[in-house]
Amino acid sequence: xxxxxxxxxxxxxxxxxxxxxxxxxxxxxxxxxxxxxxxxxxxxxxxxxxxxxxxxxxxxxxxxxxxxxxxxxxxxxxxxxxxxxxxxxxxxxxxxxxxxxxxxxxxxxxxxxxxxxxxxxxxxxxxxxxxxxxxxxxxxxxxxxxxxxxxxxxxxxxxxxxxxxxxxxxxxxxxxxxxxxxxxxxxxxxxxxxxxxxxxxxxxxxxxxxxxxxxxxxxxxxxxxxxxxxxxxxxxxxxxxxxxxxxxxxxxxxxxxxxxxxxxxxxxxxxxxxxxxxxxxxxxxxxxxxxxxxxxxxxxxxxxxxxxxxxxxxxxxxxxxxxxxxxxxxxxxxxxxxxxxxxxxxxxx
Length: 349
What we know:
26% of the residues lie in helices and 19% in strands. With 349 residues, the protein is an alpha+beta fold. A 5-stranded mixed beta sheet has the order 9-16-15-11-12. The chain has a 4-stranded antiparallel beta sheet with strand order 8-10-14-13. The chain is globular, with a radius of gyration of 20 Å.
């Protein structure tokens, strides 16, 4: 499994693209460290996995290992044609299902409904988008029409590109894990790819796969209807795999405003504590932040990427630091209508 993880992580450098947003003002954060260990290391119970936690770990490992990242004979039954006459081709069902399985895995980890289904209409639409992006050879949600492309074909491709997560990578499970990272400087302000995948009302999705590159995941589905939730975090409360986190990954918490109110960057404060060492990072409006990878970052984005009211924070970690099994982090968010706190326990995939 580790060789597959390495391959997935390398894809992070080439993913770009995100939906447009109503941008909230970006304020700085305060990166404070507390070298004290308090009494965390005296409480040995929290540093071991309970039977329930171990059961969830086993399920995550099994589901992760079952998602293929290579396919004999390639991805297609019929390869798309990206020059006149344009044709969407036909993707192998096992390739598409691998993408759906990856969506459902991260939703399971996050604690939201994990029974998203593959939809043929979304996939057909997104194949038009994959051909269009390949034809213009540009990663954009608003591709221009090639002069020799049929207007109806173009309109389908445009609709797909403007309603999907898009990537320069065309393998669905790989793109899902990279979308969840959302650490690029043009993504970190809103982590929109991630929030669309973790959108509770999503019930169906589909993929578009370009002949050589470019991939799409339909994101605007809400056919599940209303889902009650408290908050949706990534990394998520409880056990969390180190395979899906890097030092430059931004943490995020989308909150239910009916339970916590709308977060205000002038009032909200986030405290992230590494219980193993006692290291503490405090995020508020008063400390500078940067969208550069590996830099401290803090923002509140109220845009409707899946669900709105998202608090985003990233600690600046020492080069020698690596998330490892047994790491436990406590998140405490104050300045809401009521305090929100949870704990994340890392495990090795």
